[in-house]
Amino acid sequence: MNVKTRAAWWLSPPVFFALIFVLVFLLHVFLLQLPYFWDEAGYYIPAARDILLTGSLIPKSTVSNAHPPLVMIWLALWWKVAGYAPEVTRSAMLVVAAFALLGVFRLAERVSNARVAIASTLCTALYPVFFAQSSLAQVDLAAAGFTFWGLAAYIEGEAAEVAFWFALAGLAKETAILAPLALIAWETVRATAGKRLGGKLWSEKWSQQGRKEKNEADQVAATTSIFDAQRRIASLAISVVPLAFWYGYHYSRTGHVFGNPEFFRYNVSATLDPIRFFLALTQRVWQLCGYLHLWILTLAALLAMLMLPPEHDSGMERPRIGFEQQMISYVVIGAYVVVMSMIGGAVLARYLLPAVPLVIILCVSTIWRRVRYWTAVTGFVALAFVAAWFWNPPYGFSPEDNLAYRDYAILHEDGERFLEARYPMARVLTAWPASDEITRPWLGYITRLMQVERIEDFSLNQVLSAAELYPDYNVALIFSTKYEPGPVFWDRWETFARIRARWKSRFFGYHRDLPPNAAARILGGRIVYSEQRHGQWIAIIERQGIEDAEGVSPALTVEHGSK
């Protein structure tokens, strides 16, 4: 049996939730006023705003991607009560993050003990991807949180709670059904294998008892186990039903089940390639085990498991997480890694948010079991995670995975306010998401909409064709559409770098943005504004002859360095 520490008063769910919320709120205070970032601005905020203004669950101001509406409804309710503002939005998401962390604590406590649960919750809260997503108005963290609660209920054997929490997870994001579907497959395998896999899954007591019983009793236990497996499978299957109803409703209103055809092509039909699957799988394994200093935790756990014997408390060996409970984590982790390598146009780390905290729990438990000064080790890991908030790694990553997204928001807020002040009536050549940022003032970047000519990106081909396709633009707003790391040692192998770039371009839509000076020469203009922050940049290019354009204010050349 696992050793359980005596619960303190502050570990009661309401008090601990309040403590978690205060902690995460204080850590995010300096982020609350940021304008909406990337996919927030592109889909989730417009969809939630449509619910607020029209009551429609199908977005009107953006093309529907068929994402379930639970999180958007949550945001609309907050706006209805407290007003539409970024501070309200991010506070609402921090409530979701605190609830998700309480789910991590509950799950870790059920499979180990309160000490491991506290350390796991702290590490999860500080892990850069979880930290960055905590205040962003996106759906992955909410789906992960409900998944943790569902897994805790599954381990406890609470069938009704299992159906409830996993149903909410599916209504937060459709991919959350991976957890219950994976567990259905696991239960089916166990039920088919029968006695060879032991007694009941949800109680060590039952499995220990089953090993002691005689053959006749074993047969009865096997029959009971099959019946219990069927009950568990039924509760897991029921949790998928609300998502099925949502898709039926979406089809009845739009004629599409899984969102608009382009969204489905980008995220599913265009990703089913064996080579792409292998490349994405390697990225998923890295995101699960090593991404943004996660390797420090997994390496520490591996070394402890291979080199150190278990520690003892009061003469008793510290217990590991039970085998069957470990298997639950492995099944869910494996499902997410494999499926999210097959689908999803962008291999974003946030898609693994339901899986990474499970890795953290397993690793923290291993370190607690085998390392005498385990609190020092986990404390060092926590500090490494905090360092990764500010440190951009020497490999490509998404700015939404640490505080690089704050750099992006500040760059665009500064640049677009300059653009609005100096060129209020200009026709602006730019790419998404800036094209949304300057045509939707309610995203927080500008105060009045501007005219836009949109291109796909700032690659050489797109910039070369811009003058022919859009001859009437006055100003170009260009920016880094992705984080580009500096030169690293593997770039020395030209053949490898060339093959890597070709595969990234073919399977993951990779392109290289032209630097501002090169874009200005091609567009026949001059840079009147530029700013850089930690590897990201933005620039405004004034086209020749703009001084004669009606309604365009005289330009003032401004250049900012890194901040």
Folded structure, characterized:
The protein has a 6-stranded mixed sheet. The chain has a two-stranded antiparallel ribbon with strand order 1-2. The chain is globular and about 85 Å long. Helix 3 packs across helix 4, helix 8 packs parallel to helix 11 (215-238) and helix 9 (178-193) crosses helix 16. By secondary structure, the protein is of the alpha/beta class. Residues 1-5, 197-214 and 553-557 have low confidence and may be disordered. The termini are far apart. It has 2 domains: 32-400, no CATH class; 403-559, no CATH class. The protein is built from 23 helices and 8 strands.
Quick structural summary:
This protein has 563 residues and is of the alpha/beta class. It has helices spanning 13-27, 39-54, 70-82, 86-111, 114-126, 128-134, 140-156, 159-172, 178-193, 204-212, 215-238, 241-254, 261-269, 274-289, 294-307, 323-342, 356-370, 374-390, 404-422, 434-437, 460-469, 494-508, 516-523; strands at 312-313, 316-317, 427-431, 451-455, 475-479, 525-533, 536-543, 558-559.
Proportion of residues in extended strands? 5-15%
Assembly state of the chains shown: single chain
User: Using only CA atoms, what is the Rg?
Assistant: 26 Å
Low-pLDDT regions: 1-5, 197-214, 553-557
Instruction: Quickly give the structural class.
Output: alpha/beta
Report strand order across the widest sheet: 4-3-5-7-6-8
* Cα distance spanning the termini: 54 Å
Strand tally, please? 8
pLDDT averaged over residues:
89
**How would you describe the shape?**
globular
Helix content: 55-70%
**How many alpha or pi helices?**
23
The largest sheet, given as strand count, sense and whether it forms a barrel, is: 6 strands, mixed
Total domain modules? 2
